[in-house]
Records
---
Amino acid sequence: MTPALQIKGVSHSFGDFTALSKVNLEIKPGDFTVLLGLNGAGKTTLYSLVTRLYNNVSGEINIFGYNVRENSTSALKHIGVVFQQPTLDLDLSVSENLDYHSSLHGISAAEAKVRIKDEIKRVDLEDKLNEKVRSLSGGQRRRVEIARALIHKPKLLLLDEPTVGLDIGSRQLILKHVKTLCKKNKLAVLWATHLIDEIDKGEKVVVINKGKILESGEVGAIIKKTKTKNIRESFNKLVGLK
Amino acid sequence: METIFYFRCFKGIVLREALRFIHQKERFFSALVRPLVWLGIFAAGFRSVLGVSIIPPYETYIPYEVYIAPGLIAMIQLFNGMQSSLSMVYDREMGSMKTMLVSPIPRWFLLISKLLAGVFVSIMQVYAFLLIASLWDIIPPISGYFTILPALIISGLMLGALGMFLSSAIKQLENFAGVMNFVIFPMFFASSALYPLWKIEETSYWLYYVCFYNPFTYSVELIRYSLYSQINIEYSIGIVIFTLIFLILSIIGYDPARGNLQKKGGKK
């Protein structure tokens, strides 16, 4: 089976500062993978390389077999992204924002209308379609961004700290929605976070710290390997937190 | 990727820019007030100081207001080009630029679409200005309202591409304010917008050359000639060359492999 995302030996530097060092990572279709790391661990840099906002000059990044550097059009077609920073246009309505995204992926107006209706329904915001994004709460804006990321039917969803700054209710709602999508639609998900309570049993976790992957595997396996009681202790032990 | 996908993408980018423009009414208002202040106050005060002899494309003596009208039209486009780039720096800082840059449509196409969307907005501003300017008896031949259109497209593209290149080279929004002062004002004043080049040549030879090689002069003169349904080959060729240079620079500036984003993002 072709991996949804395959990262091989990727490094990246900002001047003298090494943000990523020989990172290897593989996600299969239908996998929900948590990229766990503290702030500044290199998560956003990794996302910027996968989405080709930055150019990867070392190693290789493939999305469903397409190299992002050599075949970026085919590679980017398969990705849906929710960035750490909010990226909706506050002065436009929800539907105008979603229409804009559809056009960026070459979707026809008629098709976009159907898809927008479906996706916005899934995040339970049908009644907000004509409202300006500025009037929405932080949690609602995030849900709109998730709906937007799915309009072009990607097979790989990348979310960079999507729940930061949200209340517990909104966090749980978003997490549950994405995990359901993953199971039902065989969507591959890479969920970057520093919030350990977002990880459930049986999920795959990749621990990143100072640009290096320290450990990777199923939650139980990491706990066993690090000889700790839970994933929080494993993480603390791996990154050297007391 | 199919051609229709490109068309839909282009349509979406232009529509978004138009929607933003409609929602930001104060932007439209200020874009019009600026040249009208120049026309109503500056030109009124200077018409008795500056005498303009008969120069092409004019066939007779003209009031000073008529002389500076093409310069003010180019000023609308200059401000619009810079403002649209300012919004790109803002979008990049705020993150919304990323949405566009991760589209599977090639980046050069996205950037040119964004530029053309800005040009479209500036053309709406220019026609609104021409309508109001008729109150000052600035009434070109009817054909001029049509022949000015291609000149506005190429001039808008050039000024927009210059702004886009600058936006790719600027890291923070705060830095852009400085560029506005160092780019907009020198470009505007060191051009043929407010005074003919021969008058500048009489005053200072080196300043004449600065004005002559200023890309903004080419915008002003192309618009001046086209407003009277005439074409000046020298300025037309010049503006095409400047447009291509700025376009290539801005596309390189936003190319993840070569451009300024890469320099900001990490070294090779």
---
Amino acid sequence: MSLLRALTLLSAALSSAMLLGGFRGAEGAGWLPGIAAGGLAWLISEWRGWALPATLLGLGAFLLAAGGITLDLLPFLMAASAILAMAALHTGHYVRRSMAFSAALPDARLQGRFVVRLLAIELLSAALFVAGQRMTVQLRFLPALGLGLLLIIGVSRLVTTLRDQTL
Amino acid sequence: MRRFLLQGALLYALVLWGLISLRGPVLLLALPLLLTIAAALLFGPDPPRLRITRSISVDRACEGQPVMVSLTVLNEGGRLDEVLIHDPIPDGLRVIEGQHSLLTTLRAGQTVALRYTLSGVRGVYSFGDLRVTARDVFDLVRHQVSISPQSAQMLTVLPDVVRLRRIAIRPRQTRVYAGSIPANIGGPGVEFFGVRGYQPSDALRHINWRASARLGSVLFSNEYQQERVADIGLIIDARQRSNIVIGDFNLFEHTVRAAAALADAFLTDGNRVGMLVYGRSLDWTPPGYGKQQRERILRSLARAETGISQVFDRLYYLPTQFFPARSQIILLGPLVADDLPVLVRMRGQGYELLVVSPSPVSFEAGFLGNSPETILAARIAQIERHLLLRKLRQTGVRVVDWDVREPLAQAVYVSLARQPLVARTGGVIR
């Protein structure tokens, strides 16, 4: 469990550091202290096991990375930060719900399975992001609109399926 | 908030943000979220199908006695990566060792065991269904079900029984069997009862030579007071209006402990004891002897609780016909002013009445601090109570005014050390 905890803290620290690095080029002096303070608060929340602030700050890091991309900051750094933020969110939640029970999750294979799946998702996401960055798609307005609508419908369908599975 | 809602909202936000701002990289940021959801759906658990057996080491226990609960969980469904099994503990019981929840992995056909030890206060406890939550490793897909375990579901925690020495009571009528209560009948015994004419079977040492010498021609023998068992009825006042609850402390618990101690003492002496709990309803334990009756009474006391009833709000409807005529009745409970006429009526019906009354004034005063107003209020309440008890005593009812901060035994022996004048003179004050 201490390994997963270390992984959570490392992911959160790296995510915050990458955000800091990415936002160094942004205009306006208020970003960096804010991000540094947020990152520190996130680390403390993860360390102390405070679920709500840790989750909100993790989501904030994710959204900040999206904001950085919108501001034309370093996209790879922002994507890496977002992926690491997601890893920290999942591992943090896993550690917290396991720590609630003193005799929790004695099965080391489950921890291994969790880490492997998370790592696979992160690597696949990173690879797809890199591939996507190299790809250029030119679409007319109507097909683009249709594809966008299809994407939204697809996401809706996926979330609905997820909700139905959660009884 | 559920994890899937959080993840779904973030996914939506990123997709809309990417589409509106026409920035592909923002859309690409949604990929890790999409992949996580896909992994959760792909590797998510099926609804758990478990067979759970619960066993409790005893079905009855005393207050504070450790009781071990064992659960055996057999997975009859597919593999469950992460399953949380939670056995809810009824209010009044607390876990003193182990955990009543288990977070584990269950392969198909695998069995796991969960053990914990608990103890609790007086009561009858019903164990409910277990809550089982199965989820994927990311906690996005979650199935929550309630499962009824097989076997043991109930635990009775009996009240503590304080051992009392012999209690001096003198009912107007005793039963035919030998016991420890002095009867108004001459015969074999220890205490002198009277003198009667000599009969051929009388032992020489029982001849009263002084009385025989005085009359000269006839012999007289001493008679001794017979000791027999008696019918004793316990009435527990479980009306909410007469009891006091302050935080976790309830005056009724003292009443119950006193009832348990008295029932145990009288049954140990061989008497026939019945019990009526008078509160929300009537819980009647018919009279009986011995250990089985002790168990019946303790079980009845275990489930006794205060309650409100429009019918039984006053003692007026106390069914005295449950108790044999001229028997000893012991009322346990704090008294209220309108109880007096009913108790006087019972006394008039020929019952020998003893009231063991845990004092609500001293009980409540113990929680209220030492401000001058509180002390004055407690004194006024105490005077009112003294007046009520005095009126009762004047009618021949014996009263044990029990300050619950003192042991019951002390209060009983101090109050019952001497027979009241009315009882000693057979109901007539000369």
